[in-house]
Design brief:
By secondary structure, this protein is an alpha/beta fold. The chain contains 11 helices and 9 strands. The strands form 2 sheets. The protein has a 7-stranded mixed beta sheet, with helices on both faces.
Length: 294
């Protein structure tokens, strides 16, 4: 059944992927109508998430953000499919680097210094990662959760690695980092996912809610003494992205425990408040509650 679904979907996926951008966004406009008005996709998750995150906003303001999010989410889906075949020249046109971000990365690359990169589901992280691969700097090693469907998993691996990036399955992170110690890598964590073990996470306030935060970036940075940078994939206008980077800690092992986690989580919160519609509000980010000590 998995194979049947894959081979049925594959021609449509590639058809969407080769569409010119102007037509891709017309398809996205149609998809928005279907998801928002016809299917009401995850409205029972998205609206409460927005209301809890922004209690100071009126219901009309929440509705405006929600609609903008749905439009962006449709763009994100189709842009991600587009990344299967997008050319390097088109990628350079659509996604640009802030010169200071490149200078920061180059500084550590010239020192033969690997690092940890932290970002969130804000902006198009897929196109941002692909664009990173075009720079003659660190090899980007992306931490990810493999899909259960092995057919779609092979497609995702191809999409994310075809320009030179590397993937580390979540459960193999530490082993793969050690095996690649001779190379100059940037180990990339998308750190706003819900931890699989919230009891072992760090709890803090994030978007006005008590939130478990994944400790992987801090643990890797401290253990291997890798500098940690925070990356933002900003969207100045539809279909275009601008990557910025900020050094959070050059020597993370010298920080207090959990300080690095607080730093990158607060940076993401700042980004979300600046442009809330390009964060993944359909994610069940707050499905866990902190357990009181016995």
């Amino acid at each position: 059944m998995k194979a049947i679904l894959y081979y049925f979907a594959l021609p449509w996926i590639y058809l969407i992927s080769i569409l010119p951008f102007w037509l891709l966004y017309r398809v996205s406009d149609f998809l928005f109508v279907v998801l928002y008005y016809v299917l009401g996709y995850r409205k029972k998750v998205i609206y409460p998430n927005l209301r809890n995150a922004f209690p100071e906003k009126s219901e009309n303001e929440i509705r405006v953000i929600a609609k903008k999010f749905y439009r962006y989410f449709c763009d994100l889906i189709l842009e991600t499919i587009k990344s299967i075949t997008i050319s390097p020249s088109a990628l350079r046109k659509r996604v640009t680097f802030d010169p200071e971000a490149l200078a920061l990365l180059k500084k550590f690359y010239q020192r033969d210094q690997s690092l940890v990169a932290v970002l969130g589901h804000w902006g198009n992280w897929e196109l941002g990662g692909a664009r990173f691969a075009l720079e003659p700097l660190h090899t980007l090693a992306i931490i990810y959760h493999p899909l259960k469907n092995e057919y779609f998993e092979s497609l995702v691996v191809h999409m994310r690695t075809r320009l030179g990036n590397r993937l580390y399955p979540m459960k193999e992170t530490y082993r793969r980092i050690i095996s690649d110690r001779s190379e100059i890598t940037a180990t990339a964590f998308i750190a706003d996912q819900t931890p699989s073990n919230p009891a072992g996470a760090y709890w803090m306030e994030f978007l006005n809610q008590d939130t478990p935060v994944f400790l992987g970036p801090e643990r890797v940075a401290r253990k291997h003494k890798y500098p940690c940078i925070y990356i933002s994939v900003n969207q100045p206008r539809r279909g275009y992205y601008y990557i910025t980077a900020e050094l959070l800690a050059e020597f993370p092992e010298k920080l207090q425990e959990n300080e690095l986690t607080r730093l990158h989580t607060k940076k993401l919160e700042e980004d979300i408040k600046k442009q809330p519609e390009i964060w993944l509000w359909g994610h069940r980010r707050w499905k866990h509650s902190r357990k009181s000590p016995d």
